[in-house]
């Protein structure tokens, strides 16, 4: 790391701290040549490979803007979208890869969006998964209903036993 004051090619780390969101490290450094101190911020780069092969840096803002369209008119706050984007970033970073396909990011969005708002989930999934018929929507809605009934399965079993 070059000293920004005297351009000496080395520096000594005096202190390191992780950022609040855990995505970067702030390091306090000191130059052994001039003795001045300076700070650096280090982040692990994460690049997105788009369908056309172009690579660009990962952006939470792009996640938020894409999901915001699906959430129009729904009771979803900007804070909810920020948390969703953070969860998606954590998911894709946990893969350990420095490059991730745009398709994988879309898949990582689906689960937290479904938990946040099922209507927004259906809207996003319909575009992302290219629903081309009413049957595609019906299948997605049926799956949501199955998952809801699966979570409350104990209540569904009681009436069957009551008739015996």
UniProtKB/TrEMBL annotation:
Residues 46-136 form the ATP-cone domain. A zinc finger (unnamed) spans 3-34. Keywords: ATP-binding, DNA-binding, Metal-binding, Nucleotide-binding, Repressor, Transcription, Transcription regulation, Zinc, Zinc-finger. Binds 1 zinc ion. InterPro entries: ATP-cone_dom, NrdR-like_N, RNR_NrdR-like. One of its GO terms (biological process) is negative regulation of DNA-templated transcription. One of its GO terms (molecular function) is ATP binding. Its cofactor is Zn(2+). Negatively regulates transcription of bacterial ribonucleotide reductase nrd genes and operons by binding to NrdR-boxes. NCBIfam families: transcriptional regulator NrdR (TIGR00244). Belongs to the NrdR family. This is Transcriptional repressor NrdR. The gene is nrdR.
């Amino acid at each position: 790391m070059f000293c920004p004051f005297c351009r000496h090619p080395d520096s000594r780390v005096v202190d390191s701290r992780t950022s609040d969101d855990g995505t970067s490290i702030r390091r306090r450094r000191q130059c052994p040549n001039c003795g001045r101190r300076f700070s650096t911020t280090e982040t692990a780069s994460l690049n997105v490979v788009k369908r056309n092969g172009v690579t660009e840096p990962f952006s939470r803002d792009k996640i938020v803007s894409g999901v915001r369209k699906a959430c129009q008119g729904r009771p979803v706050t900007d804070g909810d979208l920020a948390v969703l984007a953070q969860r998606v970033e954590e998911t894709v970073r946990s893969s350990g890869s420095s490059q991730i396909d745009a398709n994988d990011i879309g898949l990582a969005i689906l689960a937290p969006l479904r938990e946040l708002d099922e209507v927004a989930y259906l809207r996003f999934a319909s575009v992302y998964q290219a629903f081309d018929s009413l049957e595609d929507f019906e299948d997605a809605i049926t799956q949501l209903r199955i998952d809801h009934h699966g979570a409350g399965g104990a209540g569904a079993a009681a009436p069957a036993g009551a008739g015996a």
